[in-house]
Amino acid sequence: MAVLNRMEWYDLARSTNWTPSYVTEDELFPPKLSGEFGLPLTAWEDYDEPYKQTYPEYVKVQRDKDAGAYSVKAALERSRIFENSDPGWKSVMKAHYGAIARGEYAAASAEARMMRFSKAPGMRNMATLGCLDEIRHGQMQLYFPHEHVSKDRQMDWAFKAYDTNEWAMIAARHFFDDIMVRDAISISIMLTFSFETGFTNMQFLGLAADAAEAGDHTFANLISSIQTDESRHAQIGGPALKVLIENGHKAEAQKRGDIAVWRAWKLFSVLTGPIMDYYTPLEHRKQSFKEFMEEWIVAQFERALTDMGLDLPWYWDIFLKDIAETHHGMHLGSYFWRPTLWWNPAAGVTPDERAWLEEKYPGWNDTWGQCWDVFIDNVVDGNMAMTYPETLPYVCNMCQLPIIGTPGKGWNVKDHPLEYQGRLYHFGSEVDRWVFEQDPARYAGHLSIVDRFLAGMIQPMDLGGALKYMDLAPGEIGDDAHNYAWAEVYRALRATRKAS
Amino acid sequence: MALFPLTSNFEGDFVLQLVAVDSDDTMDEVAAAAAVHSVGRRVKARPGCVMRVRRQGAEAFLPRTMKVSESGLKPTETIEIIWEAGPH
Known about the structure:
The complex is a heterodimer.
Chain A: H1 6-14, H2 25-28, H3 31-34, H4 41-44, H5 55-76, H6 81-84, H7 87-117, H8 121-149, H9 157-160, H10 167-180, H11 184-213, H12 217-233, H13 237-246, H14 250-279, H15 289-307, H16 316-322, H17 326-336, H18 351-360, H19 368-380, E1 418-420, E2 423-425, H20 430-438, H21 440-443, H22 449-454, H23 463-469, H24 488-499
Antiparallel strand pairs in A: 1-2
Helix pairs in contact in A: 5-12, 7-8, 7-10, 7-11, 7-14, 8-12, 10-14, 11-12, 11-13, 11-14, 11-15, 13-14, 14-17
Chain B: E1 3-10, E2 17-22, H1 27-35, E3 49-55, H2 68-71, E4 78-85
Parallel strand pairs in B: 1-4
Antiparallel strand pairs in B: 1-2, 3-4
């Protein structure tokens, strides 16, 4: 039997919609799950996805791509790249897999919600393929690290992290639940358009470049392959925005985008910022985190927003300032509280690395450098007790990350509090507080790790109790990636100064 | 006498931290409790300076001998600990 050319049937197939007769439209597409925009099925039939693909094409392309990634892995399995790579690079992998692998799997359920409940047939088709993508990404990013579990217990967190109350995971879950557990249309705007178009390029393409530089071709190949899928299913949200804007719902669309972009930024400031500017060995760094943000987010995403007919988020000036600052604090915070990580953070503050930081971020030595000076002196003096915390950082009731600012001579740390129904909430920025204010009932009941501590849920109320609560077992608890070997150069400098 | 949590925003440091004090503690004692988590860890000590406490955003410091219970501070409220040049 002759097979029709794809273009002869595709448009008909992708625009085929239900005409309910036994149930009402609202019963078939409950507004809570399909979007409370009051738009009928016919309005959604104008949804026109820019990237068109059929199921047979998907299977063929993905099979070839997966085969490529798996064969690189198989070919390099005996190469001892993992054993021989810089400990900072191993930490990159551990942080990435733990934070991302199961999140991809969770995203399959968000795609499934669009697949079932979107009124736009084109979106349902795209989301079907997107759902398959996320299942594959979850499986691949669990399978690839699995070969390292027997060599390094922290690699087990690729699977384990999502089930724990480790603080960074609480932050990741809070964010992902917020953008994935909504109606189909909001998910398309918040997960695919805002998060995936805006930010996954940075994690996946930026890291792929660094991985290739570090000689980890398995990881580089895996995540660049994943990103090509992300780039496709990230386009689910764009046409939905177009339908909303054309039907007078720009304000609702704008708000959803603004919330998701800010929340994604905060998560990436702790996940990707330290990796790019501190963990990746200096000689392998392609761009600073700020440069990458400027290229991929500021230049490209700004254009995507305006092309779509949206305005820049109201907080854009705050965001542009923060991309040169926030991640330095996130790094210092995660490093200082390093026993609470499932990876070993690299300090990244040798004199050469500091010179690079100063060049990329003028004023670094007078600000974050001042805090690191005290830390480094303690390491050099062997005063290790003072290099660890004895209390909790106060975390934001929105992003669940430490409330930080610029230290030293540029000290600008500030709480953004809000009293709501008798409870005092703390936020890391004006924007985090604004997100809360958009839907207080959605967020008010959540307890941050500090709230849980104060409520007596973490026992005993000390570091040991906190580590137990976070499910960090011995052998998993984070410490300096290089066992403080980087401090030797400071010891030598001090000895030279003394001698002269 | 009751345990009282405050949020410390210590001048020169980069992060807000939870500090447990007692409702009978004076502001000098609160500053000292906050300093434990910042000074010598990420902030250099400033000999000759006095650490003063104020509400976030306030110009005026709270009196050094004022007790937490007299200050009107709410549990977990953020206080700023500021270095004040000492008498010469």
